[in-house]
Amino acid sequence: MDKLVITGGRRLQGEIAISGAKNAALPLMCAALLTREPVTLTNVPALNDIRTMLKLLQQMGVRVAREGDTVTLAAAQLDNPFAPYELVKTMRAAILVLGPLVARHGEARVSLPGGCAIGARPVEQHIKGLAAMGAEISVEHGYIHAHATRLKGARIFTDMVTVTGTENLMMAACLAQGETVIENAAREPEVVDLAQCLNAMGARVSGAGTDVIRIHGVERLHGATHRIMPDRIETGTYLAAAAITGGEVRLTGTSAGYLDAVIDKLMDAGCEIVSEKALNHEAIHLRAPPRLKAVSIRTAPYPAFPTDMQAQFMALNSVAEGTAVIRETIFENRFMHAVELTRLGADIRIDGNTAVVTGVDKLTGATVMATDLRASASLVIAGLVAEGETVVDRIYHLDRGYERLEEKLAALGALIRRVQS
Length: 421
Ligand code: EPU
Hints:
Blueprint: E1 3-7, E2 13-17, H1 22-31, E3 39-42, H2 48-60, E4 63-67, E5 70-74, E6 82-83, H3 85-88, H4 98-105, E7 107-111, H5 124-132, E8 136-140, E9 143-147, E10 155-157, H6 163-174, E11 179-183, H7 189-200, E12 204-206, E13 212-216, E14 224-227, H8 232-244, E15 248-252, H9 260-268, E16 272-278, E17 281-287, E18 297-298, H10 310-318, E19 323-327, H11 336-343, E20 347-351, E21 354-358, E22 367-369, H12 373-383, E23 389-393, H13 396-401, H14 405-411, E24 415-419
Parallel strand pairs: 2-15, 3-14, 6-7, 10-11, 18-19, 22-23
Antiparallel strand pairs: 1-23, 1-24, 3-5, 4-5, 7-9, 8-9, 11-13, 12-13, 15-17, 16-17, 19-21, 20-21
Helix pairs in contact: 1-2, 1-7, 4-6, 5-6, 6-7, 8-10, 8-12, 10-12, 11-12
């Protein structure tokens, strides 16, 4: 299993390009199931989760052509509407095939994802919404079986804001008969990106980006070409990495517009941030102070502070001046990085969904490991300032969601290398 070895103490400086968004790419790939015609996606990041999704779609009968960051998916023939446990347990986003399969194919058998390192993460809202659209659904032997001759438009109110739930139901509704209204919909930019691609495929979706999405069902969708939005969490992660080292970086191919809550907090911590916007070109420039000020955060659905940036901010606060309170309101078990950060010398107390982080003068390198993607990112960030060597174990989590992480950090001047063990 690969490890990352980081020697702390280097100030990050320079420019890197941000990749396409993992959490936009995964639903967009599933949207290709909705049409017989090819769907071409550009700016697709090279990540393990993307490879897993391609494998799943191929096994269903989808033809895949990949060249550089362009992927073409052709679902003319769908002969196996099945998502096995082995794939779904490694990548929960596989649940996103459920809506498109029932809508287009009339049938789906998708494994229940089960819990994961950050919480129980049930999918009953996905099921409830599809049932409201007339799908017959049973759950047996750990699998969701769904059937429908043609889905019917419905009014759906989700009990909580769910990102993939909104995406699954929005995709299914595109081919339903009549109008579907999703209330309490997720407003995440990835939902908007998906809606834009669906509309380019001939769907009639309006309201994406607000909490009420209306979908007027159509008979069929056609092919389209769509450029995947920049990864706002990758962007935020590199901003945090630069900030903790007192660095100065420019991130290209990304937009500050998706990151207001994160950028506000970085500015509160003492960073100067300039957003550059010109025709066909956007970038973010950050300059950090020698020492950050502690900033309290509370995670909540978009546009509030994202749970996917919580761990990285815990790392920042662990060496900042002062004390920060971090509240995690989305996932019940997303503080697994705290104990590993403590092994590097951080002062963190956890009480339920609240962490109190008191900044220390320095962290010291150690071997650490994490149980999920963003937790691993926080350990890398801490390693950049920890004295001596930090070894981050189990980096397959990072490979699921960060494209060429060590190359990008090294390009900014970090001393980081991947070793095989
Ligand atoms: N929830 C339910 N029932 C449901 C659906 C959700 O109880 O039927 C709960 C979840 O357990 C959680 C909350 O609602 O407590 C919100 O979960 P949501 O459904 O929004 O999460 P998700 O769609 O499974 C996506 C991202 C996650 C990100 C969350 C929250 C993708 C592929 N994944 O997950 O990304 O943390 O939204 O923003 O889009 C990551 O990239 O590291 C990652 C975990």
